[in-house]
Amino acid sequence: MSAPRILLLGKDGQVGWELQRALAPLGELVALGRAGGTEPATGAPLVGDLADLEGLAATVPAVRPAAIVNAAAYTTVDQAEREPELAQRINADAVAVLAQAAARCGAWLVHYSTDYVFDGRGERPWREDDPTAPLSVYGHSKLAGEEAVRASGCRHLILRTQWVYGVRGGNFARTMLRLARERDVLRVVDDQWGAPTGADLIADVTAHALHRVLSAGGAADTFSGTYHLAAAGATTWCGYARYLVEQARQAAPDAGWRVQAIEPIPTAAYPTPARRPSNGRLDTTRLQTTFGLHLPPWQHGVARWVASVAPTLRCCAPTGTGH
Ligand SMILES: NC(=O)C1=CN([C@@H]2O[C@H](COP(=O)(O)OP(=O)(O)OC[C@H]3O[C@@H](n4cnc5c(N)ncnc54)[C@H](OP(=O)(O)O)[C@@H]3O)[C@@H](O)[C@H]2O)C=CC1
Ligand SMILES: Cc1cn([C@H]2C[C@H](O)[C@@H](COP(=O)(O)OP(=O)(O)O[C@H]3O[C@@H](C)C(=O)[C@@H](O)[C@H]3O)O2)c(=O)[nH]c1=O
Ligand SMILES: [Mg+2]
């Protein structure tokens, strides 16, 4: 049996970077970033820029993948409030193009979405079929992307995740470790709930699920749908920041820590252009039971991430901290 081809878009993002590793054993991986690439067999140019809708539409049949995994997205939540057209183009229009191309080729589409499709009411973890009501431009654009996938008729896995951190790219965790070496006091919102989720975990779960789907032959159709994928447990951004700094102080005691206190504040005390849901908790039961997978507590992945970045903290302490 020849190895299936998998087309990965967004290879250089937090999740895309880990997918390059996790998807490699599943088949022949064609991984594209913004700059695109060439078709391995024919040398034909391939488009990886999601803003180029025509190029994207031509790239899928050129690769003829068994599955497309789309990790590219417009993810700057506050900036999206000022750039709604661009967010819509990348997170919805390009996704519609990919989904329609997948439907035509009979390819599976794996696509990522977010807890920000919910309005954050209540305290119960959100289930996949709960009503969506985004509060932000980013959330609206991601919901439109989901809807385009469903409307295309392609077989798909829409994986909604949240609070992603990884070894590549910017994220809340990196911001907190920087601020903890620059400031005496951090003030962090304590009334928005979710689970910090590692890009490595997301990629590994994606690979397990996709392997299952690609091995299932005609029986695979029943897997098509939406799943919540997040680490277990829940905390607030403030709880997350405290855990990060505590772990980082232990892992790199000489990194020039300046912070004395991490103060919990309400959302109202930290005004941002985009509104964010108070309750982003995701119920992951469907994913775990359908694919026979287990999602570890969020602290496990965060502690590993801190251990992996600790050496860089030691050598790169900010100036002016006495270290
Ligand atoms: N980050 C998070 O907290 C969460 C993310 N998600 C979803 O998970 C998925 C992966 O996110 P994550 O890896 O964290 O995001 P990142 O922002 O780390 O990565 C997104 C990647 O997409 C690329 N990209 C942006 N615009 C384009 C474009 N026009 N053409 C091609 N590539 C483009 C970015 O490139 P560049 O760096 O050059 O802009 C970047 O490499 C996304 O669908 C996101 O919506 C869901 C919940 C939480
Ligand atoms: C830097 C900082 C942020 N905050 C708050 C602002 C905000 O409410 C919260 C998180 O801020 P960030 O902007 O880092 O996180 P944000 O970009 O909103 O993260 C989101 O990204 C998108 C892509 C998703 O899909 C979501 O699941 C989620 O991960 O922390 C503070 O309270 N104090 C601070 O010092
Ligand atoms: Mg952000």
Give the helix/strand layout.
Blueprint: E1 5-9, H1 14-23, E2 28-32, E3 37-38, E4 45-46, H2 53-63, E5 67-70, H3 77-80, H4 84-105, E6 108-114, H5 137-152, E7 156-161, E8 164-165, H6 172-182, E9 185-189, E10 193-194, E11 197-198, H7 199-215, E12 225-228, E13 235-236, H8 237-251, E14 261-265, H9 285-291, H10 298-315
Parallel strand pairs: 1-2, 1-5, 5-6, 6-7, 7-12, 8-11, 9-14
Antiparallel strand pairs: 3-4, 10-13
Helix pairs in contact: 1-7, 2-4, 4-5, 6-8, 8-10
NADPH dihydro-nicotinamide-adenine-dinucleotide phosphate (NDP) is lined by residues 10, 12-16, 34, 48-51, 71-75, 90, 112, 114, 142, 161-164, 169.
Compact summary:
The protein is of the alpha/beta class and 323 residues long. The chain contains ten helices and 14 strands.
- Overall pLDDT confidence: 95
- Stretches where pLDDT is under 50 for at least 5 consecutive residues are none
> Number of DSSP helices?
10
What's the multimeric state?
A: single chain
CATH topology of one domain: Rossmann fold
N-to-C order of helices and strands: EHEEEHEHHEHEEHEEEHEEHEHH
CATH architecture call of one domain: 3-Layer(aba) Sandwich
Per CATH, the class of one domain reads Alpha Beta
Write down the overall geometry: globular
CATH superfamily of one domain: NAD(P)-binding Rossmann-like Domain
Gyration radius, rounded: 20 Å
Organism: Tepidimonas aquatica
Function: Catalyzes the reduction of dTDP-6-deoxy-L-lyxo-4-hexulose to yield dTDP-L-rhamnose.
Enzyme class: oxidoreductase
Pfam families: RmlD_sub_bind
